[in-house]
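Entry 14. Ran structure prediction on the chain below.
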Amino acid sequence: MLCLQLQRFGIVLTCFAYVLLVGVSSAESNSSASLTAREWPKLLRQAQHGDHKAQTRVAIAFKDGEVVKQNFAEAMKWFSEAAKHADPSAEWNLGLMYCLGQGVERNVSAGVQWFELAASHGVPEAQFNAAYLYETGLGVQQNLGRALQLYGEAADSGFAPAQNNLAHMYENGEGVIRDPVAAVTWYMKSAMQGDRRAQFNLAVMYSKGSGIPRDYGKAAEWVERSAKQGHREAETALGDLYLGGWGVHQDDHLAAFWLQKGARQGDPTAQTKLGLLYLNGRGVAHDDALGAMWLSQAAEQAQHEAQAKLALLYEWGRGVPRDLNLAYFWQLLSTDGSNTEPSQQLHDLAGSMSAENVAAAERHVSEWRVAHPAKSPAEFNALVGVRPVQ
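Output, structure tokens:
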């Protein structure tokens, strides 16, 4: 029951990998104690006299706008000076600045070279970032073998995000023979360190019985750990588990509680299910207007089930003013253009509308699809890392 339900809503199907890291690196943290305006003149003099640790610290101050006005060009200058002395934190930061185009024209290839240098000095975040770029081929030639190697080095040092992504490669057979058992091993290592993505991914493995015996109770346990750390999809999945009583006791109120959390973080599946709970008065007080509101938010994110349900609400005038034009619009949009033949509902709606209104709704659908293209893969400015913001 659990797997079928989760698959239907697409909650626990795909494990999550981390993308590029932008948090403070382990190398940087050793040299980035809080800086005061009183300390700045002495630090700057030290940097000007060739102290590479001072140069790195001055660069960090310029990069972050600490004590001085933020200035990426100055940050690049001082990181470059420190990197001449093989300072790993400077190398790591130069990699980031090249990848993000901060103080320099974006050049991912140059960024990877700096990450590789920092990686050779044992900086796990640099190992991770280079691995991620090689894995995705984002701005560089894809190299799954090198990605696997670098993830492995960072994972062996205990770096939880790398352990998660290494597991992801084993799970999907990227650059290595598919090995669900190895995937579970690495997900477990990362999850035990409190990594919320790995906790969610481990729940996936338990729910599918992949690499480990199927255990819905364990799946629920790890989903809950991840949800309690604010992982959006875990919050949604946990709400779904409570709705069905899979691995947990059935509880509509707890289901609504967790779906609220996922919905407020913008998860369209949570918004859809929460909207239906309000429409049915299940776990929450019956409220057609709130139900319609949550379905509208999900529908705007191209959630087809929400679009179809919202179309019915407009047709019936339930929770929203009755509007056959909007009913036709949302019903047509819910098909995503995949059906060449109109559904019976569309046919019936069109029969109650003027030809002009039908044509206007169809134009609106075409315009909406142009304005809401499918989401592209995460790039450099939508980043998650040591301190994930999902």
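The two ends are 28 Å apart (CA to CA). Will compare against last week's run tomorrow.
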